[in-house]
Amino acid sequence: MSDVLTISGISKTFFAGTVNERRALRDLSLRLEEGDFVTVIGSNGAGKSTLLNAIAGRMPVDSGDISIDDTRVNRMKEHRRAKYVGRVFQDPMAGTAPDLTIEQNLSLALRRGERRGLGRGVTRARRERFVEELATLELGLESRLKAKVGLLSGGQRQALSLLMAGFTHPRILLLDEHTAALDPQRAELVTNLTGRIVEQGGLTTLMVTHNMQQALALGNRLIMMHEGRIVFSADEKRKKTLTVDALLAEFGKIKGASFDDRAMLG
Fold first, then answer.
1. What distance in Å separates the CA atoms of residue 241 and residue 146, rounded to the nearest whole number?
2. What's the pTM value of the predicted model, to 2 decimals?
3. Which of helix, strand or coil describes residue 183?
4. Whole-number Å distance between alpha carbons of 246 and 194
5. pLDDT digit string (tens) for 91-132?
6. Residue 8 DSSP class
7. Which domain holds residue 166?
8. Looking at residue 147, which CATH number applies to its domain?
9. Mapping DSSP to helix (H, G, I), strand (E, B) and coil, where does residue 264 land?
């Protein structure tokens, strides 16, 4: 099976040479094969979101290589990587345009990565597809195509963001603590929806989460980060045997590491 994402020895330092110097990523390497769903856990400041930002092109790495489908994307700007990468952020407001309608947001998502200047019209065929896709969310949004997204609840917006991110079957889907800002009921809804969309679309996915139970429930692989490095990795067979207590024990083996258990448990 071919690698969709190949990360080879990437490093990133913020405020280099100053008293505030922070090494966010340290010679990190990771490979995701077609259909892999890797969950990422670690304490605050471990480098999890920096890793996602590096993959998405939001920030350049200092050294190392990032390739998607054997295409080196290090120098590729974020808007050009958009045709390869879908992303859902922690903030439900970040992934959608509040002043546009649901169907306008979906239309923009459908055109992700295309050249600017192409028609933005919502055709009958597109609208029928939007209704069909929205119905899978089971939130009644298929009957609210003309509603502005800013009127939706946080859970509804995050579900819509998730649908939009997977809309064009990106080569890699990045989920950045995408349920952390939701109440438990909505978080569970979006978590279940995540599993369904990833499985149905066969999407190769990297998901950062503070919730270890969520990290164990979703995906076929798990990695733990600390101080910019991957310090623990579990393949599908090992992951099935893991518990929250086992993960806490693994973290406890790291010299000098400490964290608030409640933060890790989401």
1. 46
2. 0.90
3. coil
4. 24
5. 988 889 999 999 999 998 887 755 544 445 678 888 999 999
6. E
7. 3-264
8. 3.40.50.300
9. helix
